[in-house]
Design a protein that fits this description.
Blueprint: H1 3-11, H2 17-23, E1 27-32, E2 35-39, H3 43-52, H4 54-65, E3 70-74, H5 78-85, H6 119-130, E4 139-142, H7 149-163, E5 169-173, H8 174-187, H9 190-198, E6 202-206, H10 215-230, E7 234-239, H11 251-257, E8 261-264, H12 270-283, H13 290-299, H14 304-321, H15 327-333, H16 335-341, H17 348-359, H18 363-367, H19 373-389, H20 394-400, H21 407-422, H22 424-439
Parallel strand pairs: 2-3, 4-7, 4-8, 5-6, 6-7
Antiparallel strand pairs: 1-2
């Protein structure tokens, strides 16, 4: 039974051409256990569908199937990621005497947002936790600051301990390793130091780039690495650069670093950033509008910590000023971050092209004097969004639309704002275009 096809056929006659085209962009994954899963090309489509059709589609699906049906909409990669994370249901907290005190309890796989930026590293860590010392030994993870390397290391340790509570795990940083070594040397107990690291099942060393130039520490680490590797014990390393670019480390040690699997953790893509922001905002109990989430995801391109910092700053400002978070507030409060990053502003031209494309009208018509209903509507929405999404003045916007003065733009903005209050369908169209431009 093609439930989704029947639903689209039922709804189609009352939709305009543009809305029908968007609806047909939603695909059915299938019906299982009373849940109809639908696939949306991206998160903007998903939000548009849920706002416009979710409740009605659930009712229609239940009538067609003659049973209560729940509808779940998944954006790109969500279904794949959900399936990958099913394995983590085994990650059950237990009382374990061997958990290192320096493992962050929040850094687990279940709390990790997975995307194209870290998927290979994530899968490698899962495989290692399932079969330590058998594959990918050592695992070398590299990438910039704040991209989740430490989270991956801690999560691997937590997961391995959930499967084997008796496993002996040590997590440390290269700096801490060096400081500990110096302490043991000062006591004349270097053999005790070696014994400590010899009898472990999983060794995790963070920030190995700090071994650069530390000859004595490198010698001891080489000794420990070899001892562990020879008996099939697992080693995982992280660094801000790949082994090939670690100058000042002995060749024999670099050779060991590269002998297993070397994987990169990159900056998160837009979809991953949106999921990170939504998760963090929920944890922080923030009421944050969707357009602000999109704006932050689009403009903050450095790392995950910067995303979290942006939310913290917004929340603090909102509470101190006792004002709700808005897009204008986000642009102002985060201006220093955006300036440092040299983010390119959303251009009026981009707004014009996106609106023209949606309404299937020529850009020259929007910039001209056509009084066709569809062109006028497109022109007014484009002016409104240009004012809403850019920092341009009314005079600059009027020039971009080839108008003599800003009164035309001001009138268009006022008309759109009034219509948004009265016409829900029009409001959703404007919001959809806004989100498409923000995620461009």
């Amino acid at each position: 039974m093609d439930i989704w096809g029947n639903i689209v056929s039922y709804i189609a006659p009352r939709l305009d051409k543009d809305s029908l085209k968007l609806l047909k962009g939603i695909k059915s994954i299938g019906l299982k256990d009373g849940v109809l899963k639908l696939y949306a090309p991206d998160i903007v489509y998903k939000d548009w569908f849920e706002i416009n059709f979710l409740e009605e589609v659930q009712t229609l699906a239940s009538k067609i199937a003659r049973q209560k049906i729940a509808v779940k909409v998944l954006s790109k990669e969500e279904e794949e990621i959900k399936q990958e994370k099913e394995v983590l249901t085994k990650e059950i907290p237990q009382e374990k005497k061997n958990i290192p005190v320096n493992l962050n309890p929040k850094f687990t796989f279940s709390n990790l947002i997975i995307g194209n930026c870290n998927k290979i590293a994530y899968k490698a860590c899962i495989a290692i936790a399932e079969n330590p010392g058998k594959i990918y030994n050592p695992l070398f993870i590299y990438g910039g600051v704040g991209l989740g390397k430490t989270h991956l290391l801690h999560a691997t340790a937590h997961y391995m301990l959930s499967k084997n509570p008796d496993a002996n795990v040590i997590y440390t940083t290269a700096d801490a390793f060096m400081s500990e070594l110096i302490t043991y040397m000062q006591k004349g107990s270097i053999l005790d130091f070696r014994r400590k690291y010899k009898n472990i099942d999983l060794l995790l060393i963070d920030d190995v780039q700090f071994l650069v130039g530390k000859e004595r520490t490198q010698i001891e680490f080489y000794y420990i690495f070899n001892a562990l590797h020879l008996v099939g014990k697992q080693v995982i390393l992280s660094s801000d650069t790949p082994p090939s670019k670690l100058k000042g480390i002995q060749e024999r040690l670099l050779s060991r670093f590269s002998s297993g699997l070397v994987v990169e953790v990159r900056q998160p893509d837009l979809d991953t950033k949106l999921r990170i922001i939504n998760k963090k905002a929920k944890e922080m109990k923030m009421e944050i509008p969707h357009d602000v989430i999109l704006f932050i995801a689009k403009t903050v391109n450095t790392n995950i910590r910067q995303l979290e910092g942006s939310l913290t700053k917004l929340k603090a400002y909102s509470q101190i000023m006792e004002r709700p978070i808005t897009l204008d507030m986000a642009r102002g409060v985060l201006s220093d971050i955006l300036e440092d990053m040299k983010i390119e502003e959303f251009s009026i031209e981009k707004v014009q092209k996106e609106v023209a494309n949606y309404f299937a009208v020529n850009l020259n018509e929007i910039l001209g004097k056509s009084r066709k209903k569809k062109v006028v509507e497109a022109r007014q929405i484009a002016m409104y969004l240009a004012r809403y999404l850019t920092n341009k003045s009314l005079n600059e916007i009027s020039k971009a639309f080839k108008k003599k003065d800003h009164t035309t733009v001001l009138n268009a903005i006022e008309k759109v704002e009034k219509r948004i209050e009265k016409d829900r369908k029009f409001k959703l169209t404007v919001e959809f275009l806004r989100d498409k431009i923000l995620t461009g």
